[in-house]
Write a structure and sequence with these properties.
The protein is mainly alpha-helical and about 750 residues long. The protein has helices at about 15-30, 40-50, 75, 80-85, 90-95, 105-120, 140-160, 185-205, 245-280, 285-305, 345-370, 370-375, 415-430, 475-485, 500-510, 515-525, 530-535, 540-570, 585-600, 610-620, 670-690, 695-705, 710-720, 720-730, and strands spanning about 60, 75-80, 385, 390-395, 405-410, 625-630, 630-635, 665. Strands 3-4-5 form a three-stranded antiparallel sheet. A three-stranded antiparallel sheet has the order 6-7-8. It has a two-stranded antiparallel ribbon with strand order 1-2.
Length: about 750
């Protein structure tokens, strides 16, 4: 197979990520004449690997950080030889792997793994939602490089250790791998290996791969016609991410807000003061002397520090127990000192800084519902303002997009999230400049790079680097829950970052009528099916959504009934329909009078109970009253009534909603718009009349007739207008007596 793809010429100008990826792929394809990667020499393979941006050292699969922002160091730089040896089933096989006589076998395993990763990078390797002609994303390949392909190679290597038939010239390395070799693996490992073997088969069918294991990878099976019944394997129960419980979100939210507003300004000022101490003591002698000077200076600073909340009230004790830094204490040992207040050492200040950062993360995660990769990739300048002054966070999304470096998108932010991000910017700027107490142990100063990551590694532990971006959100959020005295398994499931996303989905689904469409935009989904999966993950959520939706419909009717009752009782109101419009408003007005009359006959005082009772009758206990567009409600009862929008007795058809429908109710805030529309239509009709433009006259006459009946008081007002009277007479509609 010859490559005939031309290579785009890329100069010094920065190109988009999509162009960059296509350029790399094209250049790699032009490096060779055949897609049989394993037949190439190491020099050629290393050149291809370098062209596609994964390092220039064969046997090490390196992924640029900008392509996998949440990747750990081990996954960004995978030593394939070490990973294959570590994946061997037992110590005896690992000992064999490092013996010189088995070196050719191990080298072949490393080569096969490296070749396969290159094939994934430039070949048509997608088996999911993406088009089959696309290659896998860099983060996905990195995970395969770290976990799956070393395991496959280790299983095959274990087989070859037991045979003397190895011939490097013509033997396929995976030919020894059998189905039974997967039996000792866990369910997740077996599933990953089978998926990768199926991908190898797909690449083989498209002439991109030649080395396949000897196992049945077909999805179609045969059923035996005789013998004992074959029991199906039990279906593996999927541990889906569940929304966080409401009371848990509420309590963690309150504690996080207190940390942000009361502790955040304190730790920022303290960290700035500690940085100044470091600067003042950097020339105080040797490293040990500087360390001692700094330790005593920090203790004095903390001893004199006045902890005050956002209102200036002294913080003698936090409203909840806060666990500070555990650095230097024995693992598993807890004591009263864990929750001492106030902090007395640098380690405890850093622990408090970490808690404040997690509070910022909690608020931002609950505000955006972003994926982990999207949240952690936010930059320090991510907050921007639209022309109308609404703040939003500008960042990148990586899932469901074709560009390796992600696609720019934005999330609208509430004020608290803006405050959290702006405070985090100040905090991370101070933290990354804070070196260690002992200057000799701080090697970062020599290799410091300018970065703009928003979340930092805040730790006093040995070996940690506070200039590096924060990556392990899952572990950190569990530690945060523990630090502020919250459960680590709310609702019976571990506190995972992705549960924020499911929680936002649940809250929006319960609160908003058009929740699926709104969530689709918030989450950046490409199809409504993905959004519905999020909403319905919790089996009890569907019933809860229906219950809330019914309650919202009843409450909408309660508001309408109360407005009409108030209008009837007020002599100052021009309309006895509470400024509501549409033919349905007259029906509701008559129902209110009838219900009040019956209550009077029974000798009852009209009250909230009567309003609620009537609202439930009008909405059929929340089954009716559907919002078809903003401010317009269809009040027809499902299964019993029909309308001009839909001749059947089913749900209303919003696109065919008509102003003359007897079931149409228009809310009060539309009155001003309707009044202005009638006025504009009258002016345009008069202009067309003067210009003798009959076509435009007909069009504007239709607009007048459509808007006129929407609100009864507006109809009475405009029927006295000569132009409106002319339009009504021309359409065989007689003005009312008042108008005449």
């Amino acid at each position: 197979m010859n490559a005939k793809i031309s290579t785009p010429i890329v100069g010094g100008a920065k190109v988009s990520a999509a162009v960059e990826i296509q350029t790399m792929r094209s250049r790699a394809l032009l490096q060779f004449e055949s897609t049989n990667l394993c037949s190439m020499n190491l020099h050629t393979l290393t050149a291809i690997q370098s062209v596609v941006g994964h390092g220039d050292e064969f046997g090490r699969w390196q992924t640029p950080k900008r392509w996998f922002t949440t990747g750990t160091k081990a996954r960004l730089d995978v030593n394939l030889r070490n990973r294959i040896i570590a994946s061997l089933p037992n110590d005896s096989l690992r000992s064999k792997a490092i013996e010189s006589k088995y070196a050719p076998l191990l080298n072949q395993a490393v080569k096969l793994a490296n070749c396969y990763l290159i094939a994934l990078r430039i070949g048509p390797s997608s088996l999911g939602r993406r088009p089959l002609s696309e290659s896998l994303g860099a983060s996905h390949i990195s995970q395969i490089a770290y976990q799956v392909i070393p395991l496959i190679c280790a299983l095959a290597l274990a087989r070859w250790f037991d045979t003397d038939s190895w011939d490097d010239a013509d033997t396929k390395f995976l030919s020894q791998l059998r189905q039974e070799d997967l039996e000792p693996l866990s369910n997740s490992q077996r599933s990953s290996v089978l998926t990768e073997c199926k991908r190898m088969q797909f690449l083989h069918d498209h002439f991109w791969w030649h080395d396949l294991p000897l196992m049945d990878l077909s999805t179609e099976g045969t059923t035996a016609v005789a013998g004992k019944k074959q029991e199906n394997e039990p279906e593996r129960k999927r541990d889906s991410h569940l929304p966080l419980p409401d009371d848990y979100v509420s309590e963690m939210g309150l504690r996080s807000i207190w940390l942000i507003e009361s502790i955040g300004p304190n730790v920022i000022a303290l960290t700035a003061g500690i940085n100044q101490i470091w600067e003042d003591t950097k020339n105080f002698g040797d490293a040990l002397e500087v360390q001692e000077w700094r330790r005593r200076a920090v203790e004095n600073l903390l001893m004199d520090w006045e902890w005050r909340d956002e209102n200036g009230v002294p913080i003698n004790q936090p409203p909840f127990a806060i666990r500070l830094s555990q650095h230097g204490k024995k693992a598993g040992k807890k004591s009263e000192a864990d929750h001492q207040w106030p902090p007395t050492s640098l380690a405890e200040v850093l622990g408090l800084c970490s808690n404040v950062q997690q509070a910022h993360l909690f608020v931002v995660s609950m505000s955006t519902g972003g994926r982990v990769s999207e949240t952690l990739d936010l930059r320090r300048n991510c907050v921007e303002y639209a022309r109308n002054g609404i703040p939003y966070a500008s960042g990148r999304t990586f899932k469901l997009v074709r560009m390796q470096e992600g696609e720019i998108r934005d999330w609208v932010l509430p004020d608290l999230a803006v405050k959290a991000i702006e405070q985090q910017v100040r905090l991370v700027g101070l933290i990354e400049r804070l070196s260690r107490q002992n200057p000799a142990s701080d090697a970062r100063a020599k290799h410091r790079e300018l970065t703009d990551h928003l979340w930092a590694q805040i730790s006093s532990a040995s070996g940690s680097d506070r200039t590096q971006p924060f990556v392990n959100l899952g572990t950190a959020m569990v530690a945060y829950a523990t630090a502020i005295g919250m459960e680590t398994h709310p609702g019976g499931q571990s506190f995972r970052p992705h549960r924020f996303r499911k929680t936002v989905a649940r809250l929006v689904a319960l609160a908003l009528t058009q929740a699926p469409k709104i969530l689709m935009d918030v989450f950046g989904h490409k199809s409504i099916e993905m959004t519905l999966h999020y909403i319905l993950t919790d089996k009890s959520l569907q019933a809860e959504i229906e219950r809330i939706s019914r309650e919202l419909r009843v409450m909408r009717a309660v508001v309408a009934v109360e407005a009409i009752v108030a209008a009837e009782d007020s002599a100052e109101t021009d309309s006895d329909l509470g400024s509501y419009g549409g033919p349905a408003a007259l029906m509701i007005g008559r129902a209110v009078k009838a219900q009040r009359g019956r209550a009077h006959q029974r000798g009852e005082q009209w009250g909230a109970g009567n309003v609620r009772e009537l609202a439930e009758i009008l909405t059929l206990q929340g089954k009716a009253w559907e919002v078809v567009r903003e401010g317009v409600v269809c009040t027809k009862l499902p299964g019993t009534e029909s309308g001009p929008c839909n001749k059947s007795k089913g749900r209303p058809e919003p696109s065919h909603c008509q102003t003359n429908c007897n079931h149409r109710l228009e809310e009060a805030f539309l009155r001003e718009d309707v009044d202005a529309s009638i006025a504009s239509s009258v002016r345009e009709f008069e202009t067309a009349f003067q210009e003798e433009d009959e076509l435009m006259q007909a069009m504007w006459a239709g607009q007048i007739r459509a808007h006129l009946p929407r609100f009864s008081d507006l109809k009475e007002k405009w029927q006295t207008n000569p132009t409106v009277q002319r339009v009504l007479i021309a359409s065989n509609e007689e003005p009312t007596e008042a108008a005449a």
